[in-house]
Design brief:
Helices cover 47% and strands 15% of the residues. It has eight helices and four strands, in the order ββββαααααααα. β3 and β4 form a beta hairpin. The longest helix is centred in the C-terminal third of the chain and has 14 residues. A four-stranded mixed β-sheet has the order 1-2-4-3. The two termini are 30 Å apart. It is an alpha+beta fold. About 7% of the residues have low confidence.
Length: 172
Amino acid sequence: EIEPSYVIIDNNGIGYLIYVPNPYGFMIGKNYTIYTYTKVAEDEYSLYGFKTKEEKELFLKLISVKGLGPKMALPMLATGSITMIEEAIETENINYLKIGDKVARQVILDLKGKLNVINTGLFKREDYSNELTEALLGLGYKPADVKKIVSKVNPELKLEEQIKEALKLLLK
């Protein structure tokens, strides 16, 4: 089952509710390997799931920051690629992190210089294309349709604007 903030995964007849960054990146009926983190608190047991080990590792680094819990870190992963989030931290781009200023400053203070960022500076065209492609596929568009329009989208736009432009092209 796919819901706006989680998926329910069937494993040998047992359903597990797993909070994931982008539930619409999953498809019903397909098999997935999901890397999980279990949060155990006095009154809750919650599962958080990720498609890649790298995504889970970044999540674990984010929740190690004072004031940033799993429910706040998860949406950060839904909005950008790992590379773009790490680069935003390294370049102190508070606006890209899309969390409150105080928490964003704490994330930068705690994690800057401790991430696996290979390139700093401007994002590459491929990063935007891949991120745009991931977003459109996550919305349920067919890979063939997405592939046709991604190259037509202006690479100079912010990701949000690229998505809007791509959606207009897909609706034509």
